[in-house]
Amino acid sequence: MWEVLDLELIASGLRLSTPLILAALGGLFSERAGVVNIALDGIMIFGAFTGAVVAYETGNPWFGLLAAMLLGGLVAHIHGIASIRYQADQVVSGTAINLLAIGVPAVLSNALYNSTTVTPNIQLMLPIIRIPVISSIPILSTLLGKYSVLVFFAFAMVPLSWFVIFKTSFGLRLRSVGENPEAAETAGINVYLMRYYAVWISGLLAGLGGAFLSIAHGSSFVHNISAGRGFIALAALIFGRYTPKLTLLGCMMFGIADAFQIRIQGVIPIPGQFIQMFPYVLTMIVLAGLIGRAQVPAADGIPYAQAK
To answer: Is residue 208 within 8 Å of 47, Cβ to Cβ?
Structure first.
């Protein structure tokens, strides 16, 4: 068993944490603005399917990434219309999108490729970046030497998100509508528009996270490709107390746990189904320990009605 606990485990965990980081950062923007986006998992599935189809049909994975982001933003916009404009229950709206993500890709895949579970393999995947100096150093080569471009992008988004949310006027307005929308409106901030911005960003990033699963980590879309990663991303966000730095730590923890359950299968005499439960059990344990401790934005999940 101990042979699986090596540097390669951490490297695999970093790769597997990439879609979690992208989705969690998307959820961070949305939650900070006061909109609960429980639809992250569904958006990831839509992004993964769209990215795989467009990459396969065009032969260009970059077009697949762009299409996944755009569709993710569109699906998030639907959630925004329901929860911001019509003040629907945000959890119900997000759940409806998650349910659609179970059936719609299967129907479209059957119409396009005569299969409800998998799309054709993509011949050209995203490039792997090798850092010249680091890739020649044994230990650093294993940890940082070569990853997909999306892995580096996801980790770069963490400090960028922190800067945008906490060090810019846009971020200040975003946080104000999530804490006290009435006061924000009094100060001349368009609460509805800021919340739409946040939801769009969450959709773009979650769609990109889904595309990573089908274009970078894998080479096709398969049924239930997200495997609940959107919900784990939300758990990492709660673990991170709605801050980018701690959220990154949560995503890496879950990514390494996922890598561990993959590598441990067949090594110890435990049925694979129980081993696959490990990251999700860890999620429940973490949430059980943090409920009531995370500093949730004051207006998170509360629809805002503009005073007339």
So the answer is: yes
